[in-house]
Amino acid sequence: MARSGVQATARNAARALLALALSVGLLAWAFHDVKLSELGEQLRTTSVGVCLLYLATHLAVHGLRVVRWGLLVKPLGPISNRAIFAAASVGLPATFFLPLRLGEFVRPAMAARSGLTFTGTFASVVVERIADGLVNVGLFFTLLALLPSDVAVEVRRLSWVALVFFGGGLVALGAGYYARDVFLKVVSRLLRPLSPTLAGRVVGLLSTFLEGLRAVGSPGRLAGFAALSLVYWGVLGWATHLLAASY
User: Fold this and answer.
1) How confident is the model at residue 203 (pLDDT cuts 50, 70, 90)?
2) pTM of the entire predicted model
């Protein structure tokens, strides 16, 4: 028993080191053509007051994101505000530090320790990402007229791809939630000829996942989620503009 625990710890440590090494490598690649001397000169003009205000706004934004996620998670089962805060305070920063968005799995994993299902809690994260993606794409198209006319055609094309992706995800989640039985029957009929066991497992996972969308069916929680999202992105945009203008 002790040996298996040590092996599990070693595997987790190896994964963490691999993820950290990959993050460092990608960060180094991102800065490979940046002149650090010029960057240093710019940083020396930093306004301490603006940086402190920027930090304060990010702390406020984090609080908004914790409350927003709590609206999606609380309908899934008994979970304390402390557990929600702990999972969000570890999981949200992890999405920035771990590559390939692997940090998105941290919150569901921590919430599962409090008694919620991993799959159901992961559904709340998917809802968040789709909502934030739609907000970003919407802002892009809204403010497109303010951008220079020589904005790369590829950027415009990719924005349409993003709109289709996130918009399609929203439609799929809505259809899966409101037409759950039909959706699960279709998936089962498609997979059962391949493997009844696989079909049963996939349907079970999807059923748990769709249960995680329970908050979407509550108009009050959905309205609160939308309002917090607008405030969250508004505050973040204002703080970023303030910091950029200070240079």
Assistant:
1) confident
2) 0.78
